[in-house]
Amino acid sequence: MASSDPLGFSPQTNISVRGLNGDAIGYVLEGMPLNDIAYYTGYPSQFADSENYDSIALQQGAADLDSPVLNAAGGLMSLRFRTPPEKAGGLVNVSYGSYNTNREFIRLDSGELGKTGLRGFVSYSHGATDNWRGPGRDVRQHVDFKLQKDWGHGSSAALLGSWNQAIDSYYPQVSKESWAQDGIHGANNLAARYDVTDTAGGSDYWRLYRQPERTLYLAAPVQVHMAHGLTLKATPYAQGAYGNAAGGTQIPTSGLYNGTQPLADELTLPSTQAGWATVRADYTQRSARSGFTTALEWKRGVNDLVLGYWYDYTDDNEKQQFTPMSDDGYAANIWGNGGRTGIHLSDGSLLLGTSNHTITQTNALFLGDRLSLLHNRLLLTAGFKEVMMTRTGTNAMPGAAYHANTSSAVPLPRIGARFQIAPRHQVFFDTTTNFRTPAETALYDVFDPTSGQLESKGTAHVKNEYSISEELGYRYTDDRFVGSVTLFNYNFTNRQVATLISENGSFVQSTLNAGGQTSRGVDVEFGLRPWHHFSPYVSGEYLHATIDNDIAASGDLLPTRGKTAVRSPTLQAAAALTYDDGHFFGVAALHYTGHQYATFMNDERMSDHVTGNLAVGYRLSDVAMLHKPEFRMNFINISNQHYLSGVADPTLNAKDTTGRYGSTLSGSAPDYYVGGGFAALFTASTGF
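Predicted structure:
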């Protein structure tokens, strides 16, 4: 996992599986998709508080057939809220630690409400922390709730929701050159004070990069067991999100453009030096999403059939306006919405860098069967999903192609088998297919408002990523030991690699088409069930991921065939030791990540690193009305390693390279996430 801060407040975090980025992992909460449909990214820091989960499971390599996700080539993260208890009570905890971190959490359990069978919980949390490097402070408020009713033999209905508001500061990504020069200090951080006379003209001031976000997730999962082995599952859902990916930049006070249209306006703005004004670039995204998943399961004899349908509708608006800075470094309205604080032109319109509107609709039909033979020792599975996805987009910037419409219909078959050789030994095999479209930004032309020049060319003729994956493995389970060995193979066409691009001062997600890719490797894990209160665990992965073809660049071909894929460490390993005797408890963990390339030409890479975490605590017996009060200390990155944790924006080549046709292809340095430093956190909690 590539993280930017030790305590998990920052959204600048990336989880990767088998060399596949976080946008290749699907996130589903009780049948509701959580990924951003525009970029496919999941944002775990915006999801529910960890105290409210009953289970978090990562299924590597293949999502379930009925999962409402498009991008799960790397795997599926299945999240489930705790079931509200029948007895009233609750939980409260408080934390304090490094960097003036504080967090407060309270949850109230209603118990059964009268004799209705309804029971629920609601929780609220508040957290805040200073940036561990550079200026800034993150603040997060969060609410979760769930109301549930059970009846019959396993039938249930629930209403659940999660609301999050966060204002996050920004950790600049670094190049290898700047990392070697300044490390975690100096120019690799934003400026603590506003100074229009510095080399950046004040555009590096930290308050210009505060990133606010609000999200709301609502779902109503229903499961009804009917006669003759029939079960109906349905989850309608609705979501809303608004955020501002703000950044500092400078614009001229004359000679500006809206798209390709020159403007005659002469702007009078504060913080102007030599005809250039420092402003905040507000790249805002407002999205509304709704849909439903349905599945009808029929258990008959040795067969378990499923037939289902998923529909999703998303309305996404993305706009970039510019907010002037006062002479003392203040820019109004960090949310960047409403238009009142933006720079207005003489005709009353806003100066814009981007103005896109996209409607995305997804229809998916699926059919599957699980066949159980040999007294349940052999399980055969087969499934088929047909996904139909359309994007209907418009680009309101003058000079841009106004319409940007795409449509895809992709068949996704799968098969699998599991055989119980003996009570403790099992072998398994599965092959699945996945697809995804490029990020939404690939559809639209983007222009520089200071020159009217085209910064990136959009196209409606996007090429979808398609992958075929296979797994072959062995599992062992008994009363003492658990372990597995899994061989895996992926074949990609039009591999979509996530990156960050600077769009008129704002850092925006996008994707690069990396052509074909083959990824092969082996996962090994082994654990010991509690023995004298100790539970050790070890895991490791070997990965060989290669680019299958040369990549087109600037009218030539970059000689990338056979190179190692970006973000694909050859070796990873982890070890953990847990102790819990009912009162004393603790866990120590180490993680090793091998070196990984940051360019498709393999001419720049980040080094390997080892990190270690430690947690110790004591749990009391019940005291009066308090249920098992607990005190815990967490120590993160205990060796205080200063390291690059991941590749933020890979590039084609870092150094000038001769293409296949003889032209010189200029290099561009990639940027990296800086891993969080040491942090300690004390937590006291109790049930009641």
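Summary: DSSP finds one helix and 42 strands in the chain.
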